[in-house]
Design goal:
Strand order of the largest sheet of chain B: 15-16-17-18-14-19
Strand content of chain B: 15-25%
Radius of gyration of chain A: 28 Å
Helix content of chain A: 40-55%
Helix content of chain B: 25-40%
Radius of gyration of chain B: 26 Å
Oligomer: heterodimer
CATH class of the largest domain in chain A: Alpha Beta
Shape of chain B: globular
Strand content of chain A: 15-25%
CATH topology of the largest domain in chain A: Rossmann fold
Order of helices and strands of chain A: EEHEEEHEHHHHEHEEHEEEHHHHH
Number of domains of chain A: 3
Structural class of chain A: alpha/beta
């Protein structure tokens, strides 16, 4: 019997003191080799390990225990790892394990595997069954209630679109002799697929905040030559990451430094000073600086407090910082602007606090429980892929039965959000839209 | 005399369910009796004269793959064969034929009256014999006692059947037939869960009084494709149907008189099918439509009767006269028989197990319209399943099941016994989640070997099947063995990945842009294959990617279907179930964990508790995939 590998948060929702993540299935040993700081674990021994992301960054360290199947709860190879119980750590840890070949477990799936392996007796089963029931029923509830009515409207909108798309396709398939049921439904189906796809893409984009936080929040320091950008970078990094001289234009390329601020992963880029130049190398540096600025989540414009700051490139949301404030009369500096002395180290904490505040405000809308969200994101991504295939098949003139198959798979992937779209509801939509009755 | 009245299986009723049930039981070698009150009505098509369509045509092919009768009999009586959905993929092609009612009856009676192991008895059935807690036979109106270890009842709409036409009420099964009171009382006494449904039929017209000239014709296919895998070609002459439409004048007459319709006057309580509304319903619900299509279907080659499909009604006779004669082509039509609605009780099929046996009375099987379905094909499929399992029951074997990934028959039975019905149940392809593999072209490849193993399939078909199966296998092997580099493929103008990976002819065929003709020109050895083999393999290759992806789903389904739940499971003793869940499980008594999971409102927690229960008890085998 072929099995896949499942993972889930086994302890309560973070934040909590610790998060226990459980992995079960045939891929467990390869996940250990790929994601932990050790290549293998001795069964039934607690080992202190580092858990790493797909790109090799350390996520956290914690105690890992490996159980070799069948001597485990589920009867399969199992890993349990206890990490610090932050929401972000938990999310990152699950992402990392999923990217190594596991998928999120369904409610009760570990217990189910345990039964299937003949591991639990009845009394224990009853107790767990109650728990699982409570959990699975709470899930949809939680998804619908906790996140205000807007999300519910959104999901039921998807459900309606899916049902109607299927109804169109199925009407054309199951009722070929009916005058009222259309023979070709390409145009309305294409329209509905486009609507659905853009809705799902939007949902994923909203969810991208989480991803950006996982991959690191990108900050670019921009400004004229010799504004002190490299000095600010070194101050934030608390080390000599960039070469600092008095010569304008010293920084020719983008220098990136990976830091943590307020618990968030942050990439800060020091860039070449922006000015008109005939130097080919420097011109390339300027081009790269502007590109780094475009890609950044936050742009810090640093300028010399002795000169008025003007730039056409400043956008709403950018952070403007006056440097070299020690060289001017404090009263002349606008209160709107952060005033620092990068060289003296004054005001650096305020810059850091502002950065953290900006990141926090981005994440504060991410209120859904992590497990649910991760499952949902997976479902939305898969659904989107199926809808893409459906669109392509439609455009290539491939039969309605294959278009319908992908839409059906998409609706299944969205089932935890929208509820199950069963044949009965599709037929119901067919009969209410078309006069069927040969 | 008494000695002759001992059988293994008794089938009551000679309709489509009854014929398939009796034949299936007899094919398995059981001594079988079909009891009907009128031999001449065996194989009667009481409603529209057509077999097949979407989902339904699939069922006919499956019945045929298991060596049942419906496909073969239709091939001998079909007068307008059409393959529906030819513009779409083969998974949703629906074989359909208009049928000559007389020829169908004749061919069906020839099969049934000359069937090995099968006796046909003309008698009414007054009662069931029950000994102990089991059925032991039936008692005829003639007073004769017939004994058997299993009885299959296929008596259609006879339970409190009432015909409505305007204010007229006729207690009946069908027009001209009387309901069987004694047997009905016995069934009511079992206190099975019941419901009430309705269905309707249009007036029958004299085709000689129809003005066909202005009407559009719908001809048969040029190359009629038979239902049965045993039929080489259709030899019955093919005719056309006519097409006409209702119009605003028709609608006005109906709207003015709608209160006289039995449905709208409130006389009928049963629920009608949404996919087959009466003309009153259509006009009421889709008021913006100015016309509705009517197919004028001939009932036979030498029978002038025409079935106007699309205007079933329970309006009074005079209103039927008036509105029908406002329809183009029907201005001077003679009405041979007026339309009517029929309301009847059905047994909630959730009272049955997956072999269609009544859980409350071992040895009693129900099949067909009595279980809340509609359609000849749905009835025939149930008849086959009931006949098969009636024999197995008598022999002490477990139910033989077809699962949802294997056959439309499996979808039908599972839907019925797991979810019940709220309107007369009809098959649609959209009910089958594995539609892409459950095609009408491969019913034999899916089911005939199963049928052979179960003893349902005769020698002729088994031999034909083995030959075809071997030819397909060697064709498939050949296609997988001949290869070509992408470079060579590109030279043929094929758009494929230039990854240097050699691919087989089979893999190239899976590309939507590469068809069998292209493959044949590239690989001459494939061109030499039999035409049937090539057609079949082309269809297989077309869906191969999707079917491969479904494998995990099918595996998961089968894993849960393999976990049998005992039929006597004491749900009160299983902890962790809410009262609502327990009540549902007690009513339906799912045979497997998989079936339990498809019951509405069953939570993962309840399944877990059930699973634990199964694990604790000694292993039981199911025959589903033995």
């Amino acid at each position: 019997m072929r099995r896949d590998t499942i993972c889930a948060l086994a302890s309560g929702h973070p934040p909590a003191a610790i998060s226990v993540i459980r992995v079960s299935g045939p891929e467990t040993t390869s996940i250990i080799a790929e994601r932990l700081s050790v290549s293998q674990l001795k069964p039934r021994h607690a080992t202190l390990v580092e858990l790493r992301s797909e790109s090799g960054d350390q996520i956290d360290s914690g105690l890992a225990v490996f159980m070799l199947g069948p001597a485990s709860y589920t009867g399969e190879d199992t890993l349990e790892i206890s990490l610090h119980g932050g929401r972000m750590i938990t999310e990152l840890a699950l992402q990392s394990i999923m990217s190594a070949g596991a998928r999120l477990a369904e409610p009760g799936e570990f217990t189910r595997r345990a039964f299937e392996a003949g591991k639990l007796d009845l009394t224990r089963a009853e107790a767990v069954a109650d728990l699982i029931d409570a959990e699975s029923e709470a899930q949809l509830d939680q998804a619908l209630k906790q996140m205000d009515g807007a999300l519910e409207t959104l999901y039921s909108g998807w459900r309606e679109d899916l049902t109607e798309t299927l109804a169109l396709l199925e009407a054309s398939i199951d009722f070929p002799d009916e005058e009222d049921a259309p023979e070709r439904v390409d145009a309305p189906v294409r329209q509905k697929l486009e609507n659905l796809k853009s809705a799902l893409q939007q949902a994923l984009a909203d969810g991208n905040v989480t991803e950006r936080i996982r991959d690191g929040f990108r900050i670019a320091i921009l400004g004229k030559p010799n504004a002190g950008k490299s000095t600010l970078l070194n101050q934030l990094a608390k080390r000599e990451a960039a070469i600092v001289t008095d010569i304008p234009g010293t920084t020719r390329d983008v220098v990136e430094v990976r830091l943590t601020m307020g618990g968030y992963l942050v990439w800060v880029s020091d860039t070449a000073g922006l000015r008109e130049t005939h130097d080919v190398v420097e011109a390339e540096g300027v081009r790269r600086a502007l590109k780094a600025g475009d890609e950044a989540d936050l742009r810090i414009w640093l300028h010399d407090a002795r000169e008025p700051f003007r730039s056409d490139r400043v956008r709403p949301g950018d952070l403007v910082v006056s440097n070299k404030s020690d060289l001017v009369d404090p009263k002349s500096v606008s209160r709107e602007t952060l005033a620092i002395s990068a060289k003296a180290g004054d005001g650096i904490d305020e810059v850091e606090a502002e950065i953290v505040a900006r990141i926090s405000s981005l994440t504060k809308n991410v209120t859904a429980p992590i497990i649910t969200r991760a499952r949902h994101r997976q479902g939305i991504e898969r659904a989107l892929a199926h809808l893409e295939t459906a669109s392509q098949n439609l455009d290539n003139g491939i039969g309605a039965e294959l278009v319908s198959e992908d839409v059906r798979l998409a609706s299944r992937d969205l089932g935890t959000l929208t509820g199950h779209v069963d044949p009965e509801s599709v037929l119901g939509a067919v009969f209410s839209s078309f006069c069927i009755g040969k | 005399m008494q000695a002759d009245m001992k059988f293994d299986v008794i089938v009551v009723g000679g309709g489509h369910a009854g014929c398939e049930a009796a034949s299936a039981a007899a094919r398995m070698g059981a001594t079988t009796a079909l009891i009907t009150h009128k031999i001449e009505t065996i194989g009667e098509m009481s409603c529209n004269p057509a077999i097949g369509g979407l989902g339904k045509g699939h069922l006919v092919r499956e019945i045929d793959a298991l060596d049942g009768l419906m496909g073969r009999v239709s091939d001998k009586s079909g007068i307008q064969f059409r393959m529906l959905n030819r513009s779409k993929g083969p998974a949703v092609w629906g074989p359909r034929a208009q049928i000559d009612r007389k020829l169908y009856r004749k061919a069906m009676q020839a099969e049934i009256l000359h069937h090995e192991n099968l006796s046909v008895v003309e008698d009414g059935v007054e009662d069931l014999s029950v000994s102990g807690e089991k059925v032991s036979g039936v008692i005829g109106e003639s007073g004769t006692e017939y004994t058997a270890s299993a009885v299959v009842i296929t008596t259609g709409t006879f339970l409190k059947g009432i015909i409505h036409r305007g204010a007229e009420r006729i207690p009946a099964g069908r027009v001209g037939e009387k309901p069987a009171i004694g047997l009905a009382e016995r069934l009511y006494a079992l206190e099975l869960p019941m419901g009430r449904l309705k269905t309707g039929t249009p007036a029958r017209l004299n085709g000689e009084t129809i003005d066909w000239d202005p009407l559009e014709k719908q001809p048969a296919d040029d190359d009629p494709i038979p239902f049965s895998y045993l039929t080489d070609r259709i030899e019955v002459p093919q005719v056309s149907c006519g097409i006409t439409f209702t119009n605003p004048e028709t609608h006005e007459i109906i709207a003015e008189n709608i209160e006289q319709s039995a449905v709208y006057s409130g006389a009928i309580a049963g629920r009608g099918p949404r996919y087959c509304p009466s003309i009153e319903d259509k006009i009421h619900r889709f008021a913006d439509k100015t016309r509705h299509q009517i197919f004028l279907e001939p009932e036979g080659l030498d029978d002038p009767t025409v079935y106007p499909n699309g205007i079933s009604t329970s309006l009074p006779r005079d209103v039927q006269d008036a509105f029908i004669r406002k329809i183009e082509g029907l201005e001077n039509v003679e009405i041979l028989e007026y339309g009517y609605a029929i309301e009847y009780d059905y047994v909630d099929p959730r009272a049955l197990d997956s072999g269609l046996q009544v859980k409350a009375l071992p040895g009693l099987f129900l099949a067909g319209q009595i279980n809340g379905t509609t359609g000849y094909e749905e009835a025939g499929a149930q008849g086959l399943v009931a006949g098969l399992n009636a024999v197995r029951y008598g022999r002490g074997d477990d139910n033989a099941l077809f699962d949802r990934a294997e056959a439309y028959i499996g979808v039908l039975i599972d839907d019925l016994v797991t979810r019940g019905v709220t309107e007369p149940y009809r098959m649609f392809t959209s009910r089958a989640e594995y539609r892409l593999s459950l095609r009408s072209d491969n019913a034999d490849q899916r089911l005939t070997q199963r049928g052979i193993d179960l003893g349902l399939v005769g020698k002729t078909r088994a031999e034909m099947f083995h030959v075809k199966h071997a030819a397909l296998k060697s064709g498939r092997d050949l296609m997988q063995s001949v290869q070509m580099t992408p470079n060579e493929a590109q030279k043929l103008g094929w758009k494929v990945n230039q990854d240097g990976q050699r691919r087989s002819a089979w893999e190239y065929l899976a590309y939507p842009s590469i068809d069998m003709a292209a493959i044949e020109s590239a690989f001459p050895e494939i061109a030499a294959l039999d035409g049937m083999v090539k057609t079949q393999l082309e269809i297989e290759a077309m869906y191969a990617g999707y079917i491969e992806r479904q494998k995990d789903d099918v595996e998961a389904l089968r894993r849960e279907e393999a976990l049998a739940l005992p039929s006597d499971l004491d749900y009160a003793a299983v902890g962790g179930l809410t009262n609502e869940v327990r009540a549902k499980l007690e009513l339906i008594r799912p045979a497997t964990l998989g079936q339990a999971g498809r019951i509405e409102g069953i939570t993962p927690g309840a399944l877990t508790a059930l699973l634990a229960y199964v694990r604790r008890r000694p292993e039981r085998k199911t025959s589903a995939h033995a």
